[in-house]
Amino acid sequence: MSQAASLFQKHEALLNDAVEAIQSRKFYTPYPEHPKAYGETGDEEGKTAFAKQMNEDFTELLQEGASGSVGDEVSPYLQLGLGVRYPSFTTTQLIEKAKGSSKVWAALSVQERAGILIESLEKVKSRFFEIAYATMHTTGQSFIMSFQASGPHANDRALEAITMGYMELTRFPQEVEWVKPMGKFDIKVDKNWKAIPKGISLVIGCSTFPTWNTVPGMYASLITGNPVIVKPHPKAILPIAIVIAELQKVLKEAGLPAEICQLAADASSAPITKELAEHPEVKLIDFTGSNVFGDYVESLPGKTVFTEKAGVNSCLIDSVKDITPVIQNISFAVSLYSGQMCTAPQNIFVSAEGVKTAEGHLSYEEVVKAISEGISGIAQHPKMGAGTLGGIQAEATYNRVQTAAGKGGKTLLASEKIANPEFENARVASPTLIELNADQKDIYQSECFGPIVYVIKTKNAEESLQLMKESAASKGAITCAAYTTDENLMGKIEDEMNSVFTPVSFNFTGAIFVNQHAAFSDFHVTGGNPAGNASFTNPDFINRRFVWVGNRWVN
Amino acid sequence: MSQAASLFQKHEALLNDAVEAIQSRKFYTPYPEHPKAYGETGDEEGKTAFAKQMNEDFTELLQEGASGSVGDEVSPYLQLGLGVRYPSFTTTQLIEKAKGSSKVWAALSVQERAGILIESLEKVKSRFFEIAYATMHTTGQSFIMSFQASGPHANDRALEAITMGYMELTRFPQEVEWVKPMGKFDIKVDKNWKAIPKGISLVIGCSTFPTWNTVPGMYASLITGNPVIVKPHPKAILPIAIVIAELQKVLKEAGLPAEICQLAADASSAPITKELAEHPEVKLIDFTGSNVFGDYVESLPGKTVFTEKAGVNSCLIDSVKDITPVIQNISFAVSLYSGQMCTAPQNIFVSAEGVKTAEGHLSYEEVVKAISEGISGIAQHPKMGAGTLGGIQAEATYNRVQTAAGKGGKTLLASEKIANPEFENARVASPTLIELNADQKDIYQSECFGPIVYVIKTKNAEESLQLMKESAASKGAITCAAYTTDENLMGKIEDEMNSVFTPVSFNFTGAIFVNQHAAFSDFHVTGGNPAGNASFTNPDFINRRFVWVGNRWVN
Question: Which terminus of chain B faces fewer neighbouring Cβ atoms within 10 Å, N or C?
Answer without folding.
Answer: N
